[in-house]
Amino acid sequence: MNPAGLKVKLFADGADKAAILELYEMKHIAGFTTNPTLMRKAGITDYETFARDILSFIKDRPISFEVFADEFSEMEEQARYIASWGENVYVKIPVTNTRRQPSYNVVRRLTRAGVKVNVTALLTLEQVHEVAQALQGGAPAYVSVFAGRIADTGRDPIPLMAAAMAILRAQPQIELIWASPRELLNVFQADSIGCHIITATPDILKKLSLAGKDLSDYSLETVAMFCDDARKAGYTLRGVYEAAAAD
After folding, report:
1. pTM value?
2. Catalytic one among 41, 92, 116, 207?
3. Sign of the CA dihedral 180, 183, 187, 192?
């Protein structure tokens, strides 16, 4: 059961094996996602070995692995192969390739072939609408809208995410993912609009223990932290002590 009475499903986002397996022990973590950027940052050099190793531990919750081809024919071939690794595997398909060509036809072919896809890197409602059409009548799927990146541009992502939910509501096999959150507040924002899933890194997920914390107590803890760190660092202001001695 989710902490703090949340209805939104919590997915852990990352590529550190130890962190993934630690989070897997927590029943409120409903699934996992990763991507090539996170894997590279984690020092992963063998994509398939890493993925299959993780799948040997995680068999009962959804986990998304992303294709890394840029040509659609190769993208589709990779997707079908990755999907064969397990029933709980969702294959992340970028909404376009690097030449701004939409991947809707690839998504359509894959979902109708029974491949569970996670269409990723969406930032506009037009993309959500087109992806929803491509996924119509297909296998269970996720649509990942990068709300955090929308917020990075100075735009409020909540109206867009609520509109995305409205677009997808007619297709119960599709779940909306609030992707790239920047802070714990985003989890509660996603929950407030009825978003199905939010992905979050371990550092954000750890902050769930702060939900509803007494702010007066939190203020005192913050003051104590500053005081303790200054003491441990051995900071002094020589001028203050010299002035006191002169008096």
Report:
1. 0.93
2. 92
3. negative
